[in-house]
Design brief:
437 residues, alpha/beta, Aspartate Aminotransferase, domain 2, Aspartate Aminotransferase, domain 1, 2 domains, seven-stranded mixed beta sheet, four-stranded antiparallel beta sheet, 12 helices, 13 strands, 14% strand, globular, pyridoxal phosphate
Length: 437
């Protein structure tokens, strides 16, 4: 099913840069620009009230306290643990953030290396570059539901890639992984592990993957595991009986996006690996008087301050625990509302990604900013998503579905192959749709 959402554009905010009018004074120009920006701010506020389909937390209001720092260019060039001649940096904040995540992911401060990234794609590229440097002839194994940046990184690194099938939940199929590992036993394995897939939130079973590697006779020095925990890296540690991952197990690296559950006004995240893995990747650069070992040269120095401030304002682990619990509860609320309305829906255990049948109206998809994949759409119940937003969405969706399917001329979509027989509410499987949680 073709996705034409990109054809829907808002011409009102297509702006061209113009030279000052000859007769226009500075005050008039400032007034005109202020009006444009004010209108755009109103536009963003309206769109935030209907933002349901992507992994972004729009609750960033506390970060306005940091606006005075915008008058400075803050550049964290090079290794966050090394000084440089560029004195306008926030590396002390960056290291404080990294230490917090190191404790969360159970690795000692003297055993890890990491940095604040510009987002998940950069972190995944950094991870695969490290994996390739450690295992030059290694084969990348990634499930078909891995983030698109994994396959882009594989192309950039010119790595051989084996795509692994997935279960209905979205998690990696270890039977398929086993077959492909056996077929390539002569080469090391670089494995991308999804701690929450992009569309279904499927969490790959780390213990089962490790068992599979052992059964295929891959010793510890012949595999490298990267955990792409873009969203779930700040959810999994706070689940009472949820899937756990940490550096206490033989993983090579972890990445998480800070603009997702935590919330940030700009894309950013954290990449972390074992210190011994970064040694051969590091180079002393005289020009910046420090060590270069990150994908980006100049790095955003505001992002570490944003993350540090958010963690403090949201009361660290205790505050994040409350955020996670609220999101889980609201996700179940949405799932039950969709199910009661006779709509095909799936929610993985301890998850906040609610997958349901794709709406037929492109304007509806655009209005609620839904992410779609084939016959599926999903809502990601982030901290900014309120019960009122979910009620408004459910009301709008059920009203529109009466229009789409009311005449009986359009058949309702069957999602049995996508989300399972028990979750499909089409005319064939409509008596199922039982809850997974």
């Amino acid at each position: 099913m073709e996705n034409n959402i990109s054809n829907v554009t808002d011409k009102k905010y297509s702006l061209d840069l113009v030279e000052p009018f000859d007769e226009e004074c500075h005050v008039d120009r400032q007034r005109r620009l202020t009006k444009i920006l004010s209108e755009f701010q109103e536009h963003l506020a309206e769109r935030s009230n209907h933002f349901l389909g992507y992994h972004l937390n729009q609750d960033c209001s506390c970060l306005t306290d940091l606006s005075p720092f915008l008058r400075f260019h803050i550049n964290n060039v090079g290794d966050p643990f090394k000084e440089s001649n560029l004195g306008l940096h926030s590396k002390k904040f960056e290291v404080a953030v990294l230490d917090w995540f190191a404790e969360l992911w159970e690795i000692e401060n003297d055993e890890y290396w990491g940095y604040v990234t510009n987002g998940g794609t950069e972190a995944n590229l950094q991870a695969l570059l490290l994996g390739r440097d450690l295992l030059p002839d290694g084969i990348l194994y990634a499930s078909k539901e891995s983030h698109y940046s994994i396959f882009k990184a594989a192309r950039i690194c010119r790595m051989e890639c084996q795509i692994i099938g997935t279960l209905i939940t979205g998690e990696i199929d270890c039977m398929d992984l086993r077959e492909k590992l056996f077929a390539n036993k002569d080469k090391p394995a670089i494995i991308n592990l999804n701690i929450g897939t992009t569309f279904k939130g499927g969490v790959d079973n780390l213990d089962l993957v490790l068992k599979t590697l052992e059964e295929c006779d891959f010793s510890r020095d012949r595999f490298y595991i990267h955990c792409d925990a873009a969203l779930y890296g700040l959810i999994s540690p706070f689940l009472e009986n949820g899937p756990k991952f940490s550096f206490k197990k033989p993983i090579g690296s972890v990445s998480v996006s800070a603009h997702k559950l935590l919330g940030s006004s700009m894309p950013c995240g954290v990449f972390m690996t074992r210190k011994r893995h970064i040694a051969d990747f590091s180079r002393n650069i005289e020009y910046i008087a420090t060590v270069d070992n990150t994908i980006s040269g100049s790095r955003n120095g505001h992002a570490p301050i944003f993350i540090w401030y958010s963690l403090n304002m949201k009361l660290g682990r205790m505050g994040l625990q409350k955020e996670v619990n609220k999101c889980l509860m609201n996700a179940r609320y949405l799932r039950d509302g969709l199910k009661n309305a006779g709509i095909s829906v799936m929610l993985n255990e301890s998850n906040i990604l609610v997958v349901f049948e794709r709406p037929l109206d492109l304007e509806f998809i655009y209005h609620w900013q839904l992410s779609v994949d084939g016959k599926m759409a999903h809502v990601i119940v982030m901290p900014h998503v309120t019960v009122k937003m979910l009620d408004d969405f459910l009301s709008d969706l059920t009203r529109k579905r009466e229009i789409w399917y009311g005449s009986g001329e359009v058949r309702r979509l069957c999602l049995a192959e996508d989300i399972g027989l028990s979750n499909c509410a089409c005319s064939v499987h409509g008596n199922g749709n039982s809850s997974r949680n």
